[in-house]
Design brief:
Elements lengths: L4 H7 L3 H13 L9 H19 L3 H9 L36
Length: 103
């Protein structure tokens, strides 16, 4: 795998950025991840790399589509951002602890 800017971006994601995405994937029933920062980070980085490998430059949009789906049984869509209305598990949010939208 070549170290492209997208791959570097993925591999540079800190564990606190990965945690909300891991929790969302678990809540949607798409993953079983132990509730430890290392496991959450590893799973999310692998998931993003897999999406990048499959979709190329559109991997972020594909990830957002998945993260913004409602749970098929509960209808839960997650917590919306107070600024943009999108789910806070979407990749457009910075997860620095304030939940601010990066838009």
């Amino acid at each position: 795998m070549e170290l492209t800017p997208d791959v570097e971006w993925i591999l540079g994601r800190p564990n606190f950025w990965c945690a909300p995405i891991a929790h969302r994937l678990v809540k949607l029933g798409l993953a079983t991840i132990k509730p430890h920062a290392e496991e959450e980070q590893a799973y999310v980085l692998h998931w993003l790399l897999s999406l990048h490998e499959k979709h190329g430059a559109t991997f972020r949009a594909e990830a957002d589509k998945i993260l913004n789906t409602k749970h098929p049984f509960t209808g839960d869509g997650g917590e919306p951002c107070k600024k943009c209305g999108r789910l806070q598990a979407a990749l457009i949010h910075d997860f620095a602890g304030d939940g601010d939208c990066v838009k």
